[in-house]
Structure formats: C-alpha cells, structure tokens
Amino acid sequence: MEEYFSGKKIYGDNFSLDEIEKWFEQEKEGYANLGSNDFENYFYGYHNLNKIHAFNHLKKVQKFENVLGFGAAWGHEFIPIIDRIENMHILEPSDQLVSKEIYGKKPIYKHPSISGKIDFSDNYFDLITSFGVLHHIPNITFVISEILRVLKPGGYFIMREPITSMGDWTKQRANGLTKNERGIPVEPFEKLISNLNFQIVSQSYCFTMITFMQKYLGKLTKHPIYYYNFYIKFDKILSNILKFNRTYHATKKLQRVAPQLKVWVLKKEIK
C-alpha cells in the first residue's frame, strides 16, 4: 500500500469490475446514511466556498444550456448560478437524495453505472460539477475520461476534492466517513488531467486546519465557519501560504498544518 499512501498512485484506479461493484454497493447510500437524507433539515454551507474558488471564474458565461451535477444529491450546489441554468441533470447513486424541485428548477436524475460509463452523448454539457464526489469512486481515470467525453468543447468541469488520505482507509473508519472514501493525491491526478484535453482555468487550495479553526472560531458564529465569506477569503490566503507543507498521508501533527482540499476549474479545449 506504500505507493498509495505516499500519494504516488490513486488507490482503486486499477480495480477489476467485481471490485468496483463491491465498492459501489458500499458507497451507494454511504453519504445519505451519515445523516444527509433529511431534505427539510439539510444545511448546505458551501455556497461561498464554491463561489470564491469556482463559480466566480464563470461570470462571463451568461447561460448554461445543460449542466450535470456529478453526485450532486439534492442539487443545492447549483443555487448560486441557478438563474443561468436551463436544464439541470444530476447523476446520483442514492435513492434518498433526490429533490423534486430546487429554486424553480426540476432536476433530471439518473443513476450512475457501476462501470463509470456516463449515459449521455458526446459533447452534451456546458458545465459539469463534482464537489467532494470523486474520492468516493475507485476508477477515477475512466470516470474523468467519461466526463471529458460528455463535456462540450469550451465547456467547464469544476471539482473540489480532499487531497489528503483522510486516514487509513484499509481499517475501520472514524465517525463521519464512509467505508471507502480516500482523498485524491494531487500529483497523479494532475498528471491525469494534463494527459487529457483539459485546460486549467484555476486551481486553489482551501480548508487549512479547518477542524482546529472550527473548534475555536466556531464558538463565535451561528453556522460553521466555512459558511462565511470573510473566512473563505482568509482561508484561501492561508492555504496558499501553507500549501508547501501538504502531505498526502500525514502521520505527524505538523504535516496536518496544510490545506486539506483543492479546487480545480477546468475547461475542455477546442480543437
């Protein structure tokens, strides 16, 4: 496992179909069963994070004809740009995380295939989002190639993922984590996207020492600190300063003084 814990390779990328199927079944309702399946009381606190690190780079795009939320559950992540979306599609494995309507838009849901094949035609979407989803999936290289295939030339793909191991996924997980999720190591992932037809529009780090910050600053706020615009801007600066210290599988306290997440805004190049 050393090549995976060192961050040199992405764990699960060479799985057989049987291994992928087992993983898929374990993760299908994993997020919902952690307590996210109550629509009436669900709180989505990442709007400012998504705007500052991602959506602000799309201000010049006046209309998105077709968007895809990859693992987007209820669809809350689209609220900041909801007035620019014509057709909202959501690829979601859970049967529990389905909304009938969100801010006047009716999402069109599909279940993902176990193989990772995306059931849409080539060059279909103007925008695809994946916020904290890919680290729940084993065969990332194939899934990213499928995302590229269904994205229009000039279309955007936004993803936000943990870039630490999130602990030892081969052992019993801590509370708040699903069975198989693990962070995405930066170097092999960026090698992957560089080999595909993607242009990097923006990349930024965030969530440095978020647990520590929440423990002390959270006493002063009504919502989690990452809900607030001022904190996201502060965290972005801090994360950029401390990105040199990032370690995929941290085993020492000082190694944890580094950003935990990275956000990429990618664009499919026009040949």
Global structural class: alpha/beta
Rg (CA only): 18 Å
As a percent range, the share of strand residues is: 15-25%
Give unreliable regions as ranges: none
CATH architecture: 3-Layer(aba) Sandwich
Distance between the termini: 39 Å
For this entry, give a set of tags:
single chain; alpha/beta; 21% strand; 7-stranded mixed beta sheet; 271 residues
Structure description:
- The protein has 271 residues and is α/β, with parallel strands linked by helices.
- It has one domain: Vaccinia Virus protein VP39 (Rossmann fold, 3-Layer(aba) Sandwich).
- The protein is 24% helix and 21% strand.
- The chain has a seven-stranded mixed sheet with strand order 3-2-1-4-5-7-6.
- β4, α4 and β5 form a beta-alpha-beta unit.
- α3 crosses α7.
- The model has no long low-confidence stretch (mean pLDDT 92).
Summarize the SSE layout with pairings.
Elements: H1 2-5, H2 17-27, H3 47-53, E1 64-70, E2 85-91, E3 108-110, E4 125-131, H4 140-150, E5 151-162, H5 186-195, E6 198-208, H6 210-217, H7 229-242, E7 259-268
Parallel strand pairs: 1-2, 1-4, 2-3, 4-5
Antiparallel strand pairs: 5-7, 6-7
Summarize the structure.
Helices cover 24% and strands 21% of the residues. It is α/β, with parallel strands linked by helices and 271 residues long. A seven-stranded mixed β-sheet has the order 3-2-1-4-5-7-6.
